[in-house]
Specification:
38% strand; alpha+beta; 2 domains; five-stranded antiparallel β-sheet
Amino acid sequence: MKRLITSLAVMVIILVVAVLLVFQKHKVAHSSAKMDAQTAAMPKSSPSEGLLAGKVKETMDSGGYTYVLLETKDGEKWVAAPKTVVKVGQEITFAPGMVMKNFKSETLNRTFPEVVFSPGVAGSGAAGGMAAAMGGSCPSQKGDSGMAPHGGGMGSGMGAMSSSGRVVVPPLDLKIEKAKGDNAYTVAELYAQGKELDKKKVKVRGKVVKVSPNIMGKNWIHLQDGSGEPAKGTHDLVVTSQEKPEVGAIVVAEGVLEADKDFGAGYRYDVIVEEGVFEK
């Protein structure tokens, strides 16, 4: 009788363990499927492969960019580059750039299923300069959870490494009105007047294009307003704050400007706004 009870107890334990293993396997599979679905729904970005050569089928200028519909050997491709003179029917080759999926141009009020942001016509000085400033076409692989307070980039983790060691978010096609007040500036003006404005309170209106939270005790917010030069990295301003505005929001940030700020480990900012507070 004692052996029978022991055998039954062992069988019950084995059955319970088997049920737990099946449940855990199902839970892992469900979690994996959920993550795959979330990943598939995220905006995609990746470096383009090689030069972009073809015949111009359509072109338009907007927000400091020239948008070109190219007829390439692989089919039609949209390319956006700093303002360039091109004509329909012209054969042209652009330098490789960053491929953006479902990119919305604010100034054109149009969403492109896919557009390649190129630094310019292949071989031109402007293209080479921008490629150096933006760290080539390879995006940073550090996400929001990384130690770099500027890792990743356009709201979805994409960025490009600048020569200062920080990641600059690729430029959006924007045209945002300057904030009001004596201490109000555009992003470009803050870069241009950084030394004069060092340690002074400034105000800037822009679109939140990236937020890297909880790094070194604060949040790191990237703002753009459509001003500045992407080739020099002066289109993207970082504001540190205890607040956490939503990506995509148009906000007015106010804080203390710091010029030539060095956080060590090779991460240096020409200008950065600290102790930021936000209003919509």
